[in-house]
From TrEMBL:
<feature type="transmembrane region" description="Helical">
    <location>
        <begin position="62"/>
        <end position="80"/>
    </location>
</feature>
<keyword id="KW-0406">Ion transport</keyword>
<keyword id="KW-0862">Zinc</keyword>
<feature type="transmembrane region" description="Helical">
    <location>
        <begin position="24"/>
        <end position="42"/>
    </location>
</feature>
<protein>
    <submittedName>
        <fullName>Co/Zn/Cd efflux system component</fullName>
    </submittedName>
</protein>
<feature type="transmembrane region" description="Helical">
    <location>
        <begin position="87"/>
        <end position="106"/>
    </location>
</feature>
<keyword id="KW-0472">Membrane</keyword>
<dbReference type="InterPro" id="IPR050681">
    <property type="entry name" value="CDF/SLC30A"/>
</dbReference>
<feature type="domain" description="Cation efflux protein transmembrane">
    <location>
        <begin position="82"/>
        <end position="200"/>
    </location>
</feature>
<feature type="transmembrane region" description="Helical">
    <location>
        <begin position="118"/>
        <end position="135"/>
    </location>
</feature>
<keyword id="KW-1133">Transmembrane helix</keyword>
<keyword id="KW-0813">Transport</keyword>
<dbReference type="InterPro" id="IPR058533">
    <property type="entry name" value="Cation_efflux_TM"/>
</dbReference>
<dbReference type="InterPro" id="IPR027469">
    <property type="entry name" value="Cation_efflux_TMD_sf"/>
</dbReference>
<keyword id="KW-0812">Transmembrane</keyword>
<dbReference type="Pfam" id="PF01545">
    <property type="entry name" value="Cation_efflux"/>
</dbReference>
<feature type="domain" description="Cation efflux protein transmembrane">
    <location>
        <begin position="25"/>
        <end position="73"/>
    </location>
</feature>
Length: 212
């Protein structure tokens, strides 16, 4: 019997098998892994909590892209399960960043604002480039949507880091750095929840259809 599927489902399958999608994921993986190394070193040298938060975000995104590459072409159930794992991971990273920001407020460290701005701008260039490459895939399944949400949040985070650097320079206080880390943590928690919610909906629909 011939394969029967609606246009949207077939379109999603074609997109997942698109070599351009895989290529974009590989590029995104390489760029994010590199920026994680750059930012984690910079956060240690400068004492910036927002850079540390962004570095952890790059690490989470690297894992995100690696998992996405692993499930490309698999059935929707496996892609939804992978998205659920990624969403929960992003939530945990958000909570870790939140804890780090609280600790930063207790310590009262004032980071180097110039280094924050320079590294933040480098990260912004990387994330905007990745977001532009992924833009066409933003309305796919939960797995593809999770990749888009991560890249979008990253670009926002970088703008916040640059803003925090300017605020630290102006105020000679580390408080703006910690406040931005708080905002980044909330963005991560919100993005992770969106991914978990959509993946859960997809899994419930598949279970109702007897596909699980």
């Amino acid at each position: 019997m011939a394969d029967q599927c609606c246009a949207s489902a077939c379109g999603a399958k074609d997109t997942l098998n698109d070599p351009r999608w895989r290529k974009v994921l590989w590029i995104a993986l390489g760029l994010n892994a590199t920026m994680f190394a750059v930012e984690i070193i910079a956060s240690i040298v400068t004492g910036s909590r927002s850079l540390q938060a962004d570095a952890l975000d790059f690490l989470g995104d690297s894992a995100n892209y690696a998992i996405s590459l692993g499930v490309v072409g698999m059935a929707l159930a496996w892609r939804a399960r992978a998205a659920l794992v990624k969403g929960l991971t992003i939530l945990l990273f958000g909570l870790a960043v939140l804890a780090s920001a609280v600790w930063g407020l207790i310590e009262g460290v004032t980071p180097d604002p110039l280094a924050m701005g320079v590294v933040g701008f480098m990260a912004l260039v990387v994330n905007v480039s990745v977001a532009l490459m992924l833009y066409r895939y933003r309305t796919g399944d939960s797995n593809m949507r999770s990749v888009w949400i991560c890249s979008r949040n990253d670009a926002i985070n970088n703008l916040l880091v640059i803003g925090a650097g300017l605020a630290v320079m102006w105020s000679s206080s580390g408080i703006p750095d910690q406040l931005v880390a708080f905002v980044m943590a909330l963005l991560g928690i919100s993005g992770g929840w969106q991914i978990v919610r959509q993946a859960t909906i997809e899994l419930n629909e598949l279970r109702a259809e007897g596909a699980l």
